[in-house]
């Protein structure tokens, strides 16, 4: 089968410049690379054809011979004979450089860069987490809390460079600052992290004595944290730049404070609302009256109890609950009344209750209704 015209293979005109030929080769090689075309059996042959065409057209002498004699220039005895990839050491170097560019296009993102010199690996510091427990009263009013955070900070002796005062990190001699080294294995070029600089691209010849060359030192810091009113368990407060120090001049991480609100002996919280179970004397529940109840802000208020109230009755005090974290109205306070049966009665109290029972008539509507249903149930079973 006759060979295709090399200019046609690369998709360029005969008067294309060296840069245009190289650009076209990179695009074709990237498009037809076998690793990207597992479902196209013909891709490998086309990929080799593209490489063969570029090997000729990138070299001025081979290109001139091809322009004059065509493919015959490279057949046995032809003026350009010598075969594929025999353009001398410089020609091989040019081809390797072009293929290296294609390799970067294909795998650059995976390797962590897109060609060119790799800049020093300045890395952001890690984020830190601090768990802070507050009382319900503190969550209600807000507070200013002082905390101690262990972690790493930028070394002040070397200003985070890791180098002794008066010196500076130098370009890694192994990878020339790229942070990666390449090894040729047959047709492919394999990249790996530079073992000398661990991917940083720079090495420290005179490490700082204070931090051992890391640019960071372990240090406990004391911070003042503002706990806003209305926080609840799970609330997260972010302190930007208060996390671990960065590496190689990178920015510091953040500190996240996670709030946990401790249980309260009187109040239970449900979102912005508060709930409180209040015992009510039997006489007050029967006759009605007033009871005094506490508020979370430390105050107190009197609440009217309607006569004949039953256990479980809820009274609502508007905007006596928790403040809203994002502003706006407070939640509500719900009082759940629990009618209390008296204990440890005196003989006289017992006597009075027996008199009350004997004189009572239809004083317990729920009880009368319940036993009426029970009686109907039993009659239905026996019938």
From TrEMBL:
Domain J: 5-70
Any single GO CC term annotated in Swiss-Prot or TrEMBL for this entry: cytoplasm
Keywords: Chaperone, Cytoplasm, DNA replication, Metal-binding, Repeat, Stress response, Zinc, Zinc-finger
UniProt-annotated location(s): Cytoplasm
Binding site residues for Zn(2+) 2: 172, 175, 194, 197
Keyword 4Fe-4S listed: no
Zinc finger (CR-type): 142-220
An annotated Gene Ontology molecular function: ATP binding
Binding site for Zn(2+) 1: 155, 158, 208, 211
Protein family membership: Belongs to the DnaJ family.
The record's note on its domains: The J domain is necessary and sufficient to stimulate DnaK ATPase activity. Zinc center 1 plays an important role in the autonomous, DnaK-independent chaperone activity of DnaJ. Zinc center 2 is essential for interaction with DnaK and for DnaJ activity.
Xref: NCBIfam families: DnaJ_bact, PRK10767.1
Protein known as: Chaperone protein DnaJ
Organism of this sequence: Oceanicella actignis
Gene: dnaJ
């Amino acid at each position: 089968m006759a060979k295709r015209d090399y200019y046609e293979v690369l998709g360029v005109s005969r008067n294309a410049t060296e840069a245009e030929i190289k650009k076209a080769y990179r695009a074709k090689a990237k498009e037809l690379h076998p690793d990207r075309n597992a479902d196209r059996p013909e891709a490998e042959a086309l990929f080799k054809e593209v490489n063969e065409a570029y090997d000729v057209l990138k070299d001025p002498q081979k290109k001139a011979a091809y322009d004059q004699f065509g493919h015959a220039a490279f057949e046995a005895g032809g003026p350009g004979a010598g075969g594929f990839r025999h353009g001398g050491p410089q020609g091989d170097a040019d081809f390797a450089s072009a293929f290296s560019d294609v390799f970067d296009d294909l795998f650059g993102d995976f390797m962590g860069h897109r060609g060119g010199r790799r800049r020093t690996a300045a890395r952001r510091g890690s984020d830190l987490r601090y768990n802070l427990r507050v009382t319900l009263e503190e969550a209600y009013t807000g507070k200013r809390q002082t905390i101690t955070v262990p972690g790493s900070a930028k070394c002040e002796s070397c200003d985070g460079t890791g180098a002794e005062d008066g010196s500076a990190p130098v370009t890694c001699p192994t990878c020339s600052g790229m942070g990666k080294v390449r090894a040729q294995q047959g047709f492919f070029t394999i990249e790996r992290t530079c073992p000398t600089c661990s991917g940083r691209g720079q090495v420290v010849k005179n490490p700082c004595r204070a931090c051992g060359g890391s640019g960071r030192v372990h240090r406990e810091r004391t911070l003042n944290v503002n706990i806003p009113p209305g926080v609840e368990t799970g609330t997260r407060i972010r302190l930007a730049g208060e996390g671990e120090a960065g590496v190689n001049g990178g920015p510091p991480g953040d500190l996240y404070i996670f709030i946990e609100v401790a249980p309260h002996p009187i109040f239970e919280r449900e979102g912005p609302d508060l709930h409180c179970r209040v015992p009510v004397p039997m006489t007050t529940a029967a006759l009605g009256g007033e009871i005094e109840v506490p508020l979370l802000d430390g105050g107190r208020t009197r609440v009217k109890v309607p006569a004949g109230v039953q256990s479980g009755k809820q009274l609502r005090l508007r905007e006596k609950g928790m403040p809203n974290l994002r502003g706006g109205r407070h939640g509500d306070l719900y009082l759940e009344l629990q009618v209390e049966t008296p204990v440890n009665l005196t003989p006289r109290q017992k006597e009075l209750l027996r008199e009350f029972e004997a004189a009572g008539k239809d004083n317990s509507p729920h009880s009368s209704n319940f036993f009426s249903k029970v009686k109907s149930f039993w009659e239905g079973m026996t019938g």
